[in-house]
Design a protein that fits this description.
heterodimer, A: two-stranded antiparallel sheet, 16 helices, globular, B: alpha/beta, 6-stranded mixed β-barrel, 30% helix, 18% strand
């Protein structure tokens, strides 16, 4: 940087978008402006307009949000990025993404409630709004704000008291986005319409796209499940109950890790995924599982000191906790702290089973059944698809089948039990993924519209 | 990098000024031009899309000749093409006479240089051309008959209005910059009423939305007038001094019953009273009528009815009070102003045969005799998608022996051509434009060299004339020399006629037209036979054979063969296009990937149609298959498809329309179109651009 630029940077204040809801007519000029400014580096639009009440339900206003990256003070993309690909430009407040550091894990697309990080399917990495940082340095507004034809989108010195609560259609999770939203005046009269009202509801259409889907995330489902099984087997073997074949154990661990790499955009940069131990549960997961695997090799092949054994267990459990924490970013259909398909719970279940601690096993199984049933009932109440048949099967796998095996004194009962429970757990795990969703501006609008139309 | 001041030459209210960045003979970016007080924040998405449009890989950059055997277009060169064109034109001229050639030009690009195209045809002895217009003449004529001129207050004066009546105009999409003064007015406590069969984006700003049955706005206005008169909420002083025919008008509206109006318009009585109460009690009022209502067979009379409300309440010629239809104050260079320029000549000049109605192009082309049409030359237009009755028009065009289309892109009309000539874009030749909304004269300079083999139309004609053997001095009587210098000289010469205008100043930005009145008609002088505002117009009767008073006449609900269809088809404009331009660009396609029909949830359910189902929209004229979008915004028994889709993009609304003139002004009654909709279950094969 030349001295001149440094001088300029010094004088720049922290900046913020300003969006006046009433002035926006959803014209898309900001999106076009952004695409012109960034044509060399943009593969899909970074800025998007979402419409609240786009079907025009009577008595509810119809309005838009034009959003790109809000360059939040507590940016969750930056916090959760395992590869430290995000940084903050302290002169402008911009959250900057470095493509050459990105591993394409898409975890930031889960972390951001504004759908700002976009995955470029050609380069296999993330790209996003730059705040037009280069323009700010030249004292220009970002292209989108510069070219908004109605003045709805503007760019201002960042106010100290930005509030984002209770704005219908806008997600507020307390991450301090750099956007001042001016809501319509309270005195704005309600629109009276001469057409008579209707009772007919718009038929609901096909399932909306979710950022976490079973078909796309199956390598992760397999990996997390495998990790849980390995930790369970290892624990019960240290406790002296199982005798896993070390080669099979290590090979499946490696296979699982390779599987988890499959979804990375940049597989050769996988090592970067452990750089953010300080903040990212994803880094912690990968780091602790790698250590778990490495140390288990030492335990199996070099020195099976009990201290190493317990260390491996601790690392394994920590990696399972991390796995569950990774998904805390996603929304569940039903808001619950502990999900019946959490790997930590499954770990306890299988460890108890493998270690023949049957009372503990029954206790955990009961907890799981309660959690599962409660969730399904809640889903039914919310008119979500609760998959009655599958749910029945899943509970059978955990409850009725084991009881039947036991009552009829089936031979090789341990294997049958394990198989039945395994199938049940897999069903639950798949359902868990299926029920996860990431909030986006469009989804927030749908949720808030439902709330308003119910009133 | 260089920065130039320029202006958008599309057929659009806003006529934005903007600054264009040019680097290495390429337009690369756009900035707002705050000196244009009507468009200070910059152009709309289409204006911004010029960056793609100017550099689009889909642009036609060479003369193309259709291979008769394969039907495909093949690259050619100007030498070959000029020689074919010269031969063909000579042949038709000698064999059948000049009038066997139809010269079709439309509103694709405005500017003073457009006149050179007709100059060429004049030079070679003439051609057949059209009268009338696809857009707005019924309303222009109605306003002209009533007030003697088409002008309104400056766009920014709207912020002084206390009542804004947006009657059939969706400015949020078609004149986005008008939303700025509307916001300012509302912030100062103004009230806005929107009258539209659709709950539009503009309606979101209003406190009252009245949704009349399409084509019945005249009846609604007369009902309101009756209430205003009976409740004595009119401006007696203004009427006495400035209005001609009030007594007759009052007598005529007295006969209407509000209950009947409610029935005709399908608007509840209490809303008619509510509208009348607002109009009667809040001053100043600006009525902003859109162009859609006058594209009915009763369009001119409808506009006269609406305008009567501004007149009897005295909302003319004051701050915040005007009839905001068209502002031709910047049309200072026109020899014959609209709407008169649309009339067929009373006495033919022997050069141009203006015998074909723009509205009835297809029908008239087929019917034209002595001589029959043999050749068409199309520029600045896409009649296949934009003129009524696409099926009949395609037949008429295909019947001709030779077709030439000048265009930048492979439009539906271009696909019909035997020869396509690559047209200039707005950055490749200088020109001067006015606006029908803001009062500025603007220069749109040449900022880049024409791409590829592109030649501006003036140069195409020049070289064609050369090829046809016209001597240089003869040609220069009609056409400028090739090169932009000659164009600049021509423009400078034009500007010289007006001392207020200065060419160097125009290079920097927009200049207010010399005739500009901030508040139109503030002198209360009206260029009508009586010198007053004419509610009673003898001319209306004499010229157009309509009632001398504003009256409500049923629309024809034309279906082709008189069959009854239940749904009114609206074909409004969208923010994504100017008529049929822009939607071929990738950035616009992102927001507007394919045609859809808007239908009320109730009407859809009763036809077993769900959201995003494909449906067939049809009547006796033709059909159109497209997606259905269900909503609660559109009035029941109405459906809406934005006009301007290319057939290659999925279809054109004009498969459904019939060539029909409006009651006055020789406009086009697109909206007298009724249709039915049914679910379409067959697989859809989307045609791709070739």
């Amino acid at each position: 940087m030349g001295n001149e630029v440094i001088e300029k940077v010094k004088t720049i204040k922290q900046k913020s978008f300003q969006f006046t809801i009433d002035k926006c007519v959803g014209c898309q000029a900001c999106v076009v402006a952004c695409s012109i400014e960034n044509q060399a580096i943009q593969s899909i639009p970074w800025r998007e307009i979402n419409t609240f009440n786009s079907n025009g339900y009577p008595d509810i206003p119809l309005f838009h949000f034009s959003l790109a990256c809000n360059h939040c003070e507590d940016a969750p993309c930056m916090k959760n990025c395992p590869a430290l690909a995000y940084s903050r430009d302290f002169s402008t407040g911009a959250i900057v993404h470095s493509g050459n550091k990105c591993i394409g894990c898409k975890y930031c697309t889960w972390a951001c409630p504004y759908d700002a990080p976009k995955f470029n399917i050609k380069t296999r990495i993330i790209e996003k709004c730059t705040f037009c940082n280069n323009r700010i340095i030249d004292d220009l507004k970002p292209a989108c704000a510069n070219l908004c034809p109605t003045g709805a989108l503007d760019f201002i010195d960042k106010p100290t008291d930005l509030l984002h609560q209770n704005i219908p259609g806008f997600t507020d999770i307390g991450i301090k986005p750099s956007i001042k939203i001016i809501s319509p005046s309270k005195e704005k009269p309600k629109l009276v319409v001469s057409e008579f009202p209707t009772d007919i509801k718009l038929p609901t259409t096909a399932k909306k796209h979710s950022k976490i889907s079973v078909t796309e995330e199956w390598p992760l489902i397999l990996f997390t499940f495998l990790a849980m099984m390995l930790v369970s087997v290892f624990t019960s073997s240290v406790l002296g109950y199982t005798k896993p074949n070390p080669q099979v154990f290590v090979l499946s661990g490696i296979a699982g890790s390779v599987l988890s790499l499959l979804h990375l955009g940049k597989k050769l940069r996988a090592w970067r995924s452990m750089l953010n131990l300080k903040n990212s549960w994803l880094s912690r997961e990968i780091f602790s599982f790698s250590l778990f695997l490495g140390l288990s090799m030492i335990y199996f092949f070099i020195n099976n000191h009990i201290f190493i054994g317990y260390s491996v267990i601790l690392l394994g459990v920590f990696s399972l906790i991390s796995i569950d924490k990774v998904y805390k970013l996603a929304q569940q259909v039903i808001l619950i702290e502990i999900h019946s398909a959490h790997v930590l719970l499954s770990f306890f279940l299988f460890t108890a089973l493998f270690s023949e601690a049957y009372s503990a096993f029954i206790f955990i199984a009961i907890i799981k059944v309660i959690l599962y049933t409660y969730r399904k009932i809640e889903m039914r109440n919310l008119k979500k698809n609760h998959r009655l048949l599958l749910s029945g099967l899943r509970i059978d796998m955990l409850v009725s089948f084991p009881i039947i095996f036991w009552l009829f004194g089936i031979s090789n009962i341990f294997y049958w039990l394990t198989l039945s429970i395994l199938i049940g757990e897999i069903i639950d795990r798949i359902e868990y993924y299926d029920e996860l969703d990431i909030i986006t501006p469009a989804k927030q609008m749908e949720i808030d519209l439902k709330m308003i139309s119910r009133k | 990098m260089q920065v130039f001041s320029t202006a958008c030459p599309r057929n659009c209210y806003s006529t934005c000024s903007f600054k264009i960045h040019v680097e290495n003979n390429k337009v690369i970016n756009i900035d707002p031009h705050p000196e244009n007080l009507a468009t200070p924040e910059g152009p709309c998405l289409k204006g911004l899309a010029y960056i793609e449009r100017a550099n689009s890989p889909d642009r036609i950059l060479d003369p193309l000749i259709k291979n008769k055997n394969t039907g495909k277009f093949e690259k050619s060169d100007w030498k070959t093409v000029f020689s074919i064109l010269a031969d063909k034109i000579q042949y038709f001229k000698n064999q059948f006479g000049n009038h066997s050639i139809l010269f079709y030009a439309s509103s694709g690009m405005s500017g003073l240089t457009n006149k050179f195209s007709s100059n060429f045809w004049k030079m070679i002895g003439g051609a057949t051309t059209m009268y009338g217009n696809l857009c707005w003449p019924a309303g222009l004529e109605a306003t002209y008959l009533t007030m003697g001129d088409n002008k309104h207050n400056a766009p920014w004066d709207l912020e002084n209005a206390k009542l804004i009546v947006m009657w059939g105009k969706n400015a949020a999409e078609t004149n986005i910059h008008q939303m700025i003064p509307i916001d300012k007015a509302l912030a100062k406590g103004a009230t806005m009423v929107v009258i539209d069969p659709r709950r539009t984006q503009t309606a979101e700003k209003a406190s009252l939305l009245i949704q009349p049955r399409p084509g019945t706005d005249g009846a609604l206005a007369l009902g309101v007038a009756k209430i205003l008169i009976e409740q004595n909420q009119i401006d007696h002083d203004f009427i006495e001094k400035h209005v001609h025919g009030y007594e007759e008008f009052a007598k005529s509206v007295h006969q209407y019953r509000i209950a009947d109006i409610a029935e005709i318009t399908n608007v509840g009585e209490r809303f008619i009273y509510q509208l009348a109460d607002l109009i009667g009690s809040i001053k100043p009022m600006t009525i902003i009528p859109g162009f859609g209502m006058q594209r009915f067979s009763n369009g001119g009379q409808t506009i006269r009815c609406l305008l009567a409300l501004s007149v009897i309440t005295g909302n003319i010629g004051k701050k915040g009070a005007c009839w905001h239809y068209a502002n031709l104050q910047s049309y200072v260079f026109d020899e014959v102003k609209e709407p008169m320029s649309y009339y067929p000549p009373k006495v033919p000049d022997g050069i141009f045969r203006r015998s074909i109605s723009m509205a009835k192009l297809a029908e008239d082309m087929n019917a034209t005799k002595d001589p029959e049409l043999k050749m068409i030359w199309v520029e600045r237009g896409n009649p296949v998608s934009q003129n009524p009755d696409t099926n009949l028009l395609l037949k008429a065009i295909r019947k001709l022996e030779f077709r030439v289309v000048v265009d930048q892109f492979m439009t539906d009309t271009a696909l019909e051509a035997d020869i396509i000539l690559p047209a200039k874009n707005m950055f490749e030749q200088s020109d001067i434009i006015g606006s029908y909304w803001n009062p500025y004269i603007q220069l749109k300079p040449k900022v880049v060299e024409p791409a590829g083999e592109v030649k501006p139309e003036t140069e195409i004609y020049y070289w064609l004339a050369k090829k046809m053997g016209y001597p240089e001095e003869e040609i220069l009587k009609y056409l400028p020399k090739p090169g932009n210098d000659a164009i600049e000289d021509f423009l400078k010469e034009k500007v010289k006629e007006f001392p207020e205008l200065d060419y160097e100043q125009l290079k920097k930005g927009p200049i207010l037209a010399n005739s500009h009145e901030e508040i139109a008609f503030s002198d209360l002088k009206f260029n009508t036979p009586s010198g007053k505002i004419e509610l009673y117009s003898k001319q209306a009767k004499e010229i157009w054979n309509v009632s001398p008073l504003p009256t409500y006449v049923e629309t024809l609900k034309n279906n082709g063969n008189g069959t009854k269809y239940p749904l009114d088809l609206l074909s409004p404009n969208t923010k994504n296009r100017i008529h049929s331009q822009f939607n071929n660009l990738k950035i616009i396609k992102l927001f507007s990937p394919e045609p859809f029909v808007e239908i009320h949830v109730e009407d859809a359910i009763s036809r077993n149609v769900r959201d995003n189902d494909y449906v067939k929209v049809f009547n006796d004229n033709g059909y159109f298959i497209l997606k259905a979008k269900l909503n609660y915004c559109i009035k029941r028994k109405c459906v809406s498809i934005s006009n301007g889709w290319w057939i290659q993009e999925g279809g054109s609304t004009n498969f459904l329309s019939k060539g029909l003139e409006t009651d006055m002004g020789h406009g086009t009654a697109f909206h007298d179109t009724m249709v039915e909709i049914e679910k379409y279950d067959k697989p859809i094969t989307q045609k791709k651009n070739n």
